[in-house]
Each structure stands twice: as structure tokens, then as C-alpha cells.
Design brief:
105 residues; Glutaredoxin; 4-stranded mixed β-sheet; disordered C terminus
Length: 105
């Protein structure tokens, strides 16, 4: 099992948007993954229902869930925890997770 640690040098949480829609089980899973990442990396997650905005629905209809930071799509579809951690670390300015420790398990 791998454990990731991030620098806590960030003064403000990373602003993350999760593009979603009602009844999307992959979206629910991605939100759970974001909660897991938030234990190590300060995040502020805002869920956005794409069905409320015609432009978002047209653009993202078959792509959700989509994780965005600063208007940039960083992950989409079947998101994995390692993929999400790495993408958010880059967006946070760390470039990559700073400490990757293998732990017994």
C-alpha cells in the first residue's frame, strides 16, 4: 500500500470543481476520492451540475465526472486515486507528490 504526503506550504486550499449530474455513480465515486485527497492536500471542492447549464451539458455530457482546477480539466471519466492525487499535486504547484512512502500492509 502506498501513502502520499503533500507539502502543507499552501496558504489557501486548492479550488476544485467537480462537474457532475444527479444519479451519476462515477461522480459520487470521484467525490469520495476527492475527500480522500483532501486529507493530505487542502482542497475546497465545489460540485457543478452540468444539466443546469446548457453549455456545460453540451460540452461535458458524456465525459463526466470531470475534475477542474482554474478552468482546466485535470481528470475525467473513471478517475483513480493515484491519477487524482498526481493531477492535483501538479495543480497545487508541487509538481508531484513530495513524499511517496511504501508502507507495510
Amino acid at each position: 500500500m502506498a501513502r502520499w504526503r503533500y507539502s502543507r506550504l499552501m496558504s489557501a486550499p486548492l479550488q476544485v470543481e467537480l462537474l457532475t449530474r444527479r444519479g451519476c455513480s462515477l461522480c459520487d465515486k470521484t467525490h469520495t476520492l476527492l475527500d480522500a485527497v483532501a486529507r493530505d492536500l487542502p482542497l475546497e471542492v465545489r460540485s457543478v451540475d452540468i444539466d443546469v447549464d446548457e453549455g456545460l451539458r453540451v460540452r461535458y455530457d458524456q465525459r463526466i465526472p470531470v475534475v477542474r482546477v482554474g478552468g482546466v480539466d485535470v481528470c475525467e471519466g473513471r478517475v483513480t486515486l493515484p491519477e487524482l492525487r498526481a493531477a492535483l499535486a501538479v495543480q497545487a504547484g508541487n509538481g508531484a507528490p513530495l513524499d511517496h512512502q511504501a508502507t507495510g500492509g
